[in-house]
Please model this.
Amino acid sequence: MAGARDHGGAMTALAACRRLAPALLPLWLAAVVRGQAAPAEDFVAEASRRLAAVGCTVPAEVRAEARGAAEVIADLDAQQDLFLPPDAYLLQHELLRRLGLPAGRNAEALRQQAIAAMARGLSAYYDPRGRCFVRLESRTLEVTEQLGGSLPLVVHELVHAHQDAREGGLTGFFAAVPRTLDSALARRCTVEGEAEIVAFAALQGEAALAKVEDLAVAGVLDRLFAGEVTGLIYESGRRLALARHQAGGLQAVAALWRSPPPSTEQVLHAAKFGRDVPTAVVVPAVEGLARAASTTIGELMVLHLLRQLGHNRLDASLAAAGWDGDELVVFDRGDEAAVALAWRSVWDREEDAADFVARVEVAGRGRLVRAGRLVDWVAAADAVLQDRIAAACAADRPALEPDDVDAATTAAAEAALRAALDQSRAEGRRWRHDAIGLDVPMPDGWDLRQIQGVDILMRTGGARAGFATNVNVLAQPRGEVVDLEELAALTRQQFGQLGVDIDQLEVQARDGVEVLQLEYHGQIGGSAPLRFLALAYLRGEKQVWITATALQSTWGDQEAELRRLLEDVRITAP
Model:
């Protein structure tokens, strides 16, 4: 989908392709997983040793290679065929363009956009064709190593080497089921989720996983730096693997390889795992038309599609949560390829189908019809053909009996989504975060916006070079940080590694709560010169960061405004 360029088949660690968003710099600097120094010489050997300690064996023949830009593009292109089903880009191109969303001029252009986007942010990956770890000398790698060292990156990628040594390897894993977009993404989530959790255990010790409620902070970074689809893959895979670890340790995580979830629906929702099996859906035949290509889109891509149509993450997630099965078909009639498209979907409850229809109708294209729990969407080259396909669909609608079990899992999934995603809200001219006792002002001329599913307070107007002055909030696991003095020391250390200049860093009292107050400036990852104001505090098992970021060139005009904004931040004691 337009985000299809986010979700190609490269086996890449997110640390490798995150591009530093300056507004989120302090989140990295105070990360719960403390930076590891790069191994002295053989980083593959060091990563392999750590993985072996948690029962993850890396084949001895796996080697490290350096490759140039042209070789990397060729690798990524080949991986599209390994990890995505045939016609994936054709189907996505047709669906996107008929919904009026960016799709590239054709399927091949969409594929090349995907590969180029992956290559731009890449610093390392595992190549299953050559069974080697590829490390690229790039600015992205340089910044990654400054922040966390090479080791986390290498450990994640070598988990893929371990997976590839299993029977059938990665290629066989993705080819083992009917290859639809949904099944491919479900398996991609499984592969990346295992790599993330095993890498965490190898670096921090398996016992540390027992203390982790979630890895939500990583999900925020994934969405911002790697694109929303890739972010969803890693975020959902991490959550799935973490839930399995809590149920049965690393053995239960590894068992996902033998019995992966059949759909992204089961990946996305703990309440549905192993229970809610998708309904088989078939778009009826249409006389005179041939099926050029077909696939199952699945809940993850439905969610992304709704986000592309402009819905916020909570509304889009709730609308997608009742998905129970679908089929997308592109038709041709010999003289004209891809002349029409039909998408039939089934939903757990009639209210889920109605919610989906209400969200998609904003596109205003094609014909959208709901019949109970079933929804048909048809878009064709001309009105006569569209009517004919719609009539064929109307004449062949299966009887669907209510499914109380699926309905119950969807209700539970929606409750979980509200609890997870409805963590902040605008109330008057305040941005409230009740769970962490935080209230941020929204002065006139500032708007709360959602970027890649992440809420960010932005100053309207006056953006320069694609950068808008902004304020962001993130609550992340506290980890091993004892107090603010230790947090300050860690921040000083990591700022020094980045070459960022600290203007102020001190612990102060605010509303009876101890707060770390920071001011700093610098250029990060080739950015324009930037200025930062930040507050950080500890609350229970969380550390909370509020960061304001502006260009150095606008600092003189905006400094007083930003200082007033942060001075008006209210923090309540637990």
